[in-house]
Amino acid sequence: MTYNNILIIGGSGFIGTALATRLANQGRHVIVPTRRVKNAQTLLMVPQVEVVEADINDDKQLRKLIARSDAVINLVGILQGGLGNPYGKRFAQAHVELPQRIVKHMKAMGVGRLLHMSALGVTGSQNSPSMYLRSKTDGERVVRGSFLNWTIYRPSVVFGAGDSFLNLFAKLAKVAPFLPLAGADVKFQPVYVEDVAQGMINTLDNPNSEEKTYEMTGPKVYTLRNLVEIAASYSGNPRPIIGLPGPLAYLQALAMELVPGEPLMSRDNLNSMKLDNVGSAPLSPDLKLEPTALEPIAAEYLCPANAITPLDRFRSKAHR
User: Which of 4, 90, 192, 246 is least surrounded by Cβ atoms within 10 Å, i.e. has the fewest?
Assistant: First the structure.
């Protein structure tokens, strides 16, 4: 079956923009709800993408959106969710309660296909070291028990123009004479945002992907120190990196939590990094991907002389 009317919840974000654009380029109708249309400005330029101002936390609005689709993709995820046991309130709302409501309304509307974004490091156990991973585990449990035609994706950290990972360290390197780094030796296997989008598309219509979970990783494993060095160097601001031992890393994370606004790092982020963020096996052939190397892509968007935006990338694809 080919799914031609697709609702992407969380579609105005980093991964969602890449995914919606690729789906639209295939001629599919893509619905992207957002609280404010200005949050999805790039997608307003893409034919076949319908940006709808809506509150997905309102059951009536969510149900109407699902009723207009034949497949639903849930990309919603947050890194900071407050404190709680087994996880904070915001983690519960975004990672567990939202999937519950999506599943409920999909069943009511007779929509059977669900693609769900989880995270590498989810083990299926409530013994996971962080609230983030425990809430993602419970979100997966909701999807697996839904009796829908579900597929779950577990990406490592995702890179690309507009990411909040390498760009963050590049910005810090511009203002800091050195970079104190918690979890410097933790391993990651970064995956390119366009590969994530294409892998999801390659499995969307494939019935063999139903009731399967796919890890999504890049071709190379790095330590966090390696990645920060790349971000600083490519941005033109190489900096000494000082790995922080456990107690100092904890104090750094605690101090960042106390700064007003969304923290750059929390103690829960630090707990997540107790596990290496690498794949357990090669990519599934179902994804039909040759993973993209990080260095040439990162050089393209981190170097000040080559700085591009997601909008620039869209214009290039559209030959504008």
Answer: 246
Instruction: Reduce the DSSP state of residue 275 to 3 states and report it.
Output: coil
Tokens representing 182?
């918690």
pLDDT in tens, 85-130: 999 999 999 999 999 999 999 999 999 999 999 999 998 767 889 9
Same topology, domains 5-158+191-217+279-291 and 159-190+218-278+292-320? Answer is no
Q: Tell me: domain 159-190+218-278+292-320, CATH 3.90.25, correct?
A: yes
pTM for the whole thing?
A: 0.92
Instruction: Tell me which residue of 68, 1, 62 sits closest to 30, measured CA to CA.
Output: 68
- Residue listed under structure tokens 């139903």: 210
**DSSP line for 189-200:** --EEHHHHHHHH
Give residue 21's pLDDT: 97
- Residue ranges of alpha helices (H) inside the chain are 14-25, 41-44, 59-67, 89-91, 98-109, 131-144, 166-175, 193-204, 224-234, 246-258, 267-272, 294-302, 310-317
Q: Backbone phi, then psi, for 67, in 5-degree steps?
A: -65, -25
Look at residues 207, 190, 101, 202 and name the one whose alpha carbon lies nearest to residue 150.
207
Nearest to 66 by CA among 112, 116, 117: 112
Here the tokens at position 296 are 């040439």
Question: Residue 140: its pLDDT value, please?
Answer: 97
Q: Tens digit of pLDDT for each residue in 142-167? A: 999 999 999 999 999 999 999 999 99
5-158+191-217+279-291 folds as Rossmann fold (3.40.50)
